[in-house]
Amino acid sequence: MSRKPELKGRAARLAQLFPTGRAQAARTPFVLLVVLLLGGGLIGLLVLNSALSEGAFQLDDLQRETKSLTDEEQALQRDIDAHSAPDALQRRARELGMVPGGDPAFLGPDGKVKGVPGPASAARAPLAPAPGAPVTEAAPEAATPAPAPTPASSSTPGR
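The structure corresponding to this sequence follows.
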């Protein structure tokens, strides 16, 4: 067996500062800890990257859906605007048998009637004929004016 020579003096004091056989055993858990931390960090980064990629795909799908819904909303708004245009309203009113109203009368805050009300008659020509709408003449019996309501006879129920 090989025996270590005995050190004397300064060399003996320096030799006491260095650990003996335990140095190799103490290094192994530290290396394993560092490897586990690095592996865990890499796996964590992989999971985080996958989650961010999935979020990016969902964001892209939602932006595409938002654009589609915005286009649909604009198309519906154009349809509403086309149906609420004055000429379209007039044409539909004529199709339903409605006629332009007569002269209006207004009530003032003091209860007095301003203006002379006139009856609606089917013989009155429309203010702006709808383009492409057939012009029909009103029957003579429809042109007879209805009696105008008198302002003095109107009463509010419950008062």
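The first strand starts at residue 106 and ends at 107.
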